[in-house]
Design goal:
The complex is a heterodimer of chains A (about 180) and B (about 140).
Chain A: H1 2-21, E1 44-46, E2 54-56, E3 65-70, H2 75-90, E4 95-100, H3 104-114, E5 120-124, H4 128-132, E6 140-144, E7 150-155, H5 160-177
Parallel strand pairs in A: 3-4, 4-5
Antiparallel strand pairs in A: 1-2, 3-6, 6-7
Chain B: H1 2-15, H2 29-41, H3 58-72, H4 77-88, H5 103-129, H6 134-139
Helix pairs in contact in B: 2-3
Amino acid sequence: MSRYLIPLIAFAILIPVFIIGLDPERNVNELPSPFIGKPAPTFELPTLKDPARSVGSANFEGQAVLVNVWATWCVGCRQEHNFLLQLEESGTIPIYGINWRDTRPEALGWLEQLGDPYVASADDRDGRVGIDWGVYGAPETFLIGADGTVLYKHLGPLNWPIWERDFVPLLTSTEVDR
Amino acid sequence: MKFWLSCLALVLVTGTSLAIDTSESFDDPEMQARYEKIVEEVRCLKCQNATLKDSPATLAADLRREIRRMVEEGMSDDEIFDFLVDRYGEFALYRPRASGRTLVLWVIPVLLLLGGAFLLANIVRQRMAMPIDDDVDEKD
């Protein structure tokens, strides 16, 4: 009996490893963000539209916001752009942009051509704020609660199903808290 | 002639293996050594199986720039690793530290080794207890 016990135990250990490792839904590029549940990193940068004005964490005070990291060289950003426009139109939540490692003329052209869903976009040309936010691949979207903590981070293009599944439950629960 | 041709070939070949990190070296050799050690121990988050030193990604270049700045500012290795872990998680380090969730990574090999030693000891003890009787085997 006991000679079968050890292979059985090894099998029992391997099964969950394979179930997690071979999950087709699993995105191997997605890393757990160390920011969830912690205060969002503060930042202040010139806005894209008017470099004389600045935008940053100070603008979020007291309200839940979405912070979307985007760039014109980023294909996924183009994919999610229509969703962001629709979300902005629905008036659910203010969206702030961080224009990451981009050039100003291209970024302005993008907003003019495709529409501008953002309250304001910060111009993070050298990627320094991106590092503070642990950004490693645009698009990335952070949900910041009214108290300034990071509630959720999504890697990759957003769409309505993802929004309904991952963001909406968090939004409603924080509204109850207030 | 042949010699010079091979010299030329050598120059052409080595030209393609230029380092990815094109930043200037530090004036202080000690800082340079620290910088080189750190960029070899940090994962490029964009291309996850490369170190910062080997990665051509722009993010890696940004992170090298930040590490360079921190080395220049005289931050200790641990402070620099903390900076990276705070932003990107323990995953950023190729040599995870023995604390919290990463403790598992350090404990499992020890447990496996102990388990193996235990099994081995058991098997050896069982065999030692068996009677040494060659005749039995031969008659079978």
